[in-house]
Amino acid sequence: MVDRLDQPRQRGLRLRPHYDPEAFGQLSERIARFLGTARFLVYMTVFVAVWVVWNALFPGEGKFDPYPFIFLTLMLSLQASYAAPLILLAQNRQDDRDRIQTDIDRAAAERTQADLEYLTREIAALRIALGDVATRDYVRSELQRLLEDLQQPQSPEPSDAP
């Protein structure tokens, strides 16, 4: 344990061993991933089959676990008693990661929604502003009309004199 100046000093002896929870969690996830594979099932099937065949068919003194296979049962129970907590620990870590990812996704969705609402308001404001601006087609049609008016021969205006 490294002494840090910003942390109080640990007093007395530590009776329990120190372990890195992150490293232990990563190890438990690797074990849990392996326990959930077809390879593990094949290995366990071969192991149990060899155990049973050896102890059932081997002659004389070579049998180390006779027929009810009590030692095999003990070994499988021990394996299961360690596998279950490791799997639960891996699931808890995955739940924590999922919760963090959900929070990140929710924050991103809120930002996206806010951006979408802002852009919607901006588009609405532009549409309103465009209603007051002369469009290119409108200006072109007005210029065309003025040009036609200028090209028509002007008839003399009647005078007001009698």
From TrEMBL:
Signal peptide: none
Transmembrane portions of the chain: 40-57, 69-90
Keywords assigned by UniProt, alphabetized: Membrane, Transmembrane, Transmembrane helix
Protein name: Putative membrane protein
Highest taxon of source: Bacteria
Entry-linked Pfam families: DUF1003
Native species: Streptosporangium saharense
Keyword Transport: no
